[in-house]
Design brief:
Layout (H helix, E strand, L loop, with lengths): L2 H8 L1 H10 L4 H40 L4 H5 L12 H14 L5 H7 L2 H6 L3 H6 L22 H19 L16 H16 L4 H4 L6 H9 L2
Helix pairs in contact: 2-3, 3-10, 3-12
């Protein structure tokens, strides 16, 4: 496809950044756009595996700590999230319960809740409401030091980085540039990728075995950096 047709389909404002990052080389700009899509697909797959692993680990923890149907019960009257400070979590659960209606099962409710819901279980109010034991999901995390506290707030902030990248990809934003610049740079993606691998290890998950055949992040990053 010639560049003018490609740009007409994708749009000038979207392609302009790629065009300038490639020094006005239209062929290279189209290649960069396609490789950005490939990288987005690859990292989104890794994030999806992490998200499923995280929610299942949290679910197993609370099934043991609180009991069957812990999610539905937590949003009921006098449940652990039935208070003003945990209102968003309570309302999110109840919204999904209404959608499921008579098709409710606990696994379906777990699967219906997004990354943001699970991340917020590490926020101060939800973490306390849940019994302050959810750090056990990351049982292999380092010991805290005077300079770094590997507490619930730390986990919450790290999960936010992943959630933000997930949302960026979901909204078709580019991930192959320096922040706010028309400069090719995969440093941020490499950092997010390493963060996900680190969190897998803190969950005592063999990330290499789990992601076998799925993980080509560093190869694609190198291809982009070498354009």
């Amino acid at each position: 496809m010639i560049y003018s047709d490609f740009e007409n389909i994708i749009s000038y404002p979207r392609m302009n950044r790629y065009f300038h990052a490639c020094g006005g080389n239209s062929r290279k700009a189209m290649t960069l756009y396609r490789k950005n899509l490939k990288l987005s697909q690859e990292i989104f797959t890794i994030i999806s595996c992490f998200e499923v692993s995280l929610r299942n680990a949290i679910d197993k923890h609370y099934l043991h700590q609180i009991g069957n149907d812990w999610l539905r019960n937590s949003a009921n009257h006098s449940g652990i999230f039935d208070n003003t400070r945990c209102r968003v979590s309570r309302d999110t659960i109840n919204d999904e319960l209404r959608k499921l209606n008579h098709n409710y099962t606990h696994p379906k409710l777990v699967a219906s809740l997004g990354f943001g819901f699970w991340r917020y279980l590490y926020s101060p109010h939800q973490y306390r409401a849940g019994g302050q034991s959810l750090l056990n999901v990351f049982s292999s995390r380092p010991n805290s030091t005077p300079t770094v506290q590997y507490n619930a707030s730390y986990i919450f902030n790290e999960l936010q980085k992943i959630n933000n990248l997930r949302n960026r990809i979901a909204h078709h934003e580019p991930i192959c540039f320096s922040s706010g610049q028309a400069t090719i740079d995969t440093t941020s993606i490499r950092q997010h990728y390493n963060l996900i691998l680190q969190l897998f290890r803190w969950m005592s998950i063999d990330e290499s075995a789990l992601l076998y055949g799925l993980d080509h992040i560093l190869t694609i990053c190198s291809e982009i950096d070498n354009l």
